[in-house]
Design brief:
alpha/beta; 8-stranded mixed beta sheet; 3-stranded mixed beta sheet
């Protein structure tokens, strides 16, 4: 199957470069990569264009003007512009293991969305990881990581589980399969059927709300958190506010209470000027 990978980013070139390196090392090759850029300076475009010259899969850059946190709006512009029927969402601070896209392709299923997780690293280790560490797979090796920083139990289980143990852990975990911005995938037609992201939402839960509307639509989550592995690079989050979290929780509560499917302020409400680079 063919997959469109959407990487959301904002002014984080060092982290994005590491993430792009991860997708260049995938064992699966039948996919495109789209960087959904929430208003970064032009240096991010330059970075993507430089990689696109000899990238192993098609690589595109979508951008809109910086008017504050508008991640959901740029994603709603990118979703209809994807080439393929299946979409994998991730962030510009999450480096994928080399079987990451292959794992999503293997477990994709009609009537389901896939719910992955992440292994969060500390700030010092996040900065230390190099392109060679990614290319050689060291940053996914539990023993190598433990020599740099103590891993918690959740990280150990994800990093050390193979396909068989990973399947067992995904079966017995008490964590619900939710839609996670760093590691989830769904069919494009299902995302269009619910009108994409709710653009009223800021940081703190918009992906979970999208997943809840998918469930209201009849698309159930499928757990792959111990099989689709990515490492999450730490960084400051100045865009997180108590007000945005409260607002998002209220929207999510209404979505669940009223069984809302269609985002009234979603893809078909978007009216942004969009700039793309091939």
């Amino acid at each position: 199957m063919k997959i469109s990978v959407i990487i959301s980013t904002y002014d984080s070139r060092d982290r994005l470069e590491k993430v792009l390196k991860g997708y260049a090392c995938q064992t699966y090759r039948d996919f495109e990569v789209i960087v959904a850029d929430d208003g970064s300076p032009s240096s991010t475009q330059v970075l993507v264009e430089r990689h696109a010259q000899d990238y192993p899969v098609p690589l595109r850059h979508f951008w809109h003007e910086d008017k504050g946190y508008r991640r959901q709006e740029i994603l709603n512009k990118v979703i209809p512009a994807t080439v393929h029927e299946y979409i994998l969402f991730t962030d510009g601070d999450c480096i994928p293991r080399n079987d990451f896209v292959a794992t999503h392709a293997l477990h994709a299923e009609r009537g389901r969305f896939l719910s992955g997780g992440y292994c969060k690293l500390g700030m010092d280790l996040s900065k230390m990881i190099s392109a060679d560490d990614i290319g050689e797979g060291r940053c996914f090796d539990l023993q190598w990581l433990e020599r740099q920083e103590r891993m918690n139990l959740s990280n150990r289980l994800k990093l050390d589980a193979g396909p068989i143990a990973g399947k067992l852990l995904d079966t017995i975990t008490t964590a619900r399969p939710t839609f996670n911005n760093c590691n989830s995938s769904a069919w494009k037609q299902d995302l269009l059927a619910i009108n994409g992201y709710d653009e009223r939402m800021k940081y703190g839960g918009p992906d979970r709300e999208l997943g809840e509307r998918l469930e209201n639509y009849g698309v159930r989550g499928k757990q792959i958190r111990h099989r689709a592995v990515c490492v999450h690079l730490d960084h400051p989050r100045a865009y997180k506010t108590e007000e945005s979290v409260r607002n998002n929780l209220a929207i999510r509560a209404e979505t669940r209470r009223k069984k809302i499917v269609w985002a009234s302020c979603g893809i078909k409400k978007s009216g942004l000027t969009l700039f793309t680079t091939p």
